[in-house]
Amino acid sequence: MTESSKNAISLAQIDQYHENYLARKDAKVIQRSVSHQGILATSADFASDVDMSPVFSIDLNTGKVANQKQSGRCWMFAALNTMRHHLADLFNLSNFELSQNYTNFWDKFEKANYFYENVLATADQPRTSRKVAFLMETPQQDGGQWDMLCAIIEKYGIAPKSVMPETYNSSKSSELNSVLNTKLRKDAITLRKLVSNNATDAEIAKTRQEMLADDYKILSYSLGEPVQKFAFEYRDDDKQFHADRGLTPKSFYDKYIGWNLDDYVSIINSPTDDKPYNKTYTVEMLGNVVGGRQVKHLNVTMDNFKDLAIKQLKDGQSVWFGCDVGKSSERQKGIMDVNYYKKDELLDVDLSMSKAERLDYGESLMTHAMVITGVDLVEGKPTKWKVENSWGEKVGTKGYFVMSDAWMEEYCYQVVVNKKYLSEDLLKAQSENPALLAPWDPMGALASN
């Protein structure tokens, strides 16, 4: 008997497993139910519907939800939503949207250049190295993080949706992403060959510029060329007409949003051993704008995490956040609650893991970004949170979800808050130089659902 065959499954073992299965009196009942309805529907506990009623002690009025449709731009929609909430309050303009297509164009264009930068930085490594393989797996995608949108806005500004609306390819991005990633992988072959053939810096730079010109052309055909100058015409909620002409995306941002984006910082909760609390972190090869804003996270305890979000909500400002939306989440009803599905009880198995274990073993990471617009406080403690999603009005309560506080603790990883809410100790920690994490670290995951 070989060493490996000692662990082969024997027929005697299978007979024992069969007996164990039938030992549960309701095994056949469960089999009929699960096989016909599926695990989720059978394990759903509808008591959660009552507990997660959409009523909150702090509830910001943020208008209609947006719809990212068949694209992975949740992080972009969520960030622009926090800004449009601010604009709506200042200018009496509800149900208004900023152009997600405008920022999408520049994000994809800058991601192409960022990809070239990383290809050249790893050109001395074999094609089979983990970093090169990581780069080639997805040269660019729709997903991103808060700091990446800040980098785009700081360089290009923003625009109203009315002057650069959605296109087929922005709302349904799979075709564009497929073509663009094919193009970028082909470009990677060319750049790596130039380096291996000892091409001069000037030759490489010239080739790179030609590649970027083609990228710009592809994006312009697919998304429309970015608006450069425009008029902003609108009627406010009192039906008063306004016209502001001769604007650029930069001047529009300065006049109608005016945030100092340096004031807004990324706060994470990652209780893994490799990330001590009250320290900052960045992720290698994560970003979009070469020479632009760095992705930077301050890791804090969950108590601090929630406290900062509540402080910002109490001041009337919504909160961008990142989470693993697919876990214990009922999409149609818009409920995110750890008690919604009782899969362990149904299947009679233990599926429990700690938050740190889920991160360390690939069970969970940030997949989606939304906006917190309310919280229900009972005796000063949060019990549930109101969430503005970007999946349209046909899910949840007209597009709004309810998140239990326990779900936030387990599956929320990032919030963005104004640094004025940080304590003196956290403010000092946030200002420190970040430790560098590997490109595949879960805190480098891009929100893209």
From TrEMBL:
SUPFAM superfamilies hit by this protein: Cysteine proteinases
Subcellular location(s) of the protein: Cytoplasm
Main localization (coarse): cytoplasm
InterPro entries: Papain-like_cys_pep_sf, Pept_cys_AS, Pept_his_AS, Peptidase_C1B
CC terms in the record's Gene Ontology section: cytoplasm
GO MF term set: cysteine-type aminopeptidase activity
GO BP terms: homocysteine catabolic process; proteolysis; response to toxic substance
Positions annotated as active site in the UniProt record: 74, 368, 389
Ribosomal protein among keywords: no
Keyword terms, alphabetized: Aminopeptidase, Hydrolase, Protease, Thiol protease
Presence of the UniProt keyword Hydrolase in the record: yes
UniProt record similarity statement: Belongs to the peptidase C1 family.
Identification of the protein by name: Aminopeptidase
Organism (species): Secundilactobacillus malefermentans
